[in-house]
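Below sits the subject:

***
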Amino acid sequence: MPTYFDSLPVLFASNCLQPVAKTFLGRSVAFLSLILVSCGPKSPAHEAYSSDARLLYRKHCVVCHGTDGTLALHGAADLSKSKLSLEERVQQIAKGKNTMPSFGAILKEEEILALAQYIETFQK
């Protein structure tokens, strides 16, 4: 059974829809350009941590700390109320504490730092 897309070459060849197609294409390109421009450059706060840090958090931390850091499951700290400095947070991620496992052997130093910076965004 022919589809709409199968008939497009025939319609374009006959020139009956060519102006409509150009208008539709032009509008589509304009719309997509508007969306891309409205996204704009990333803010400096966003550049402080990468999407990699978000992925690392989801992979290693979300089970106990939750998506926004407030879950506090299995004795985990509520990260939104944390008063730890960046250095203390890095050490705790690397070495672990109480029920929190050590991630120093699993993650690279730069990943631990990015993760610690990402966790700062949970503080209220």
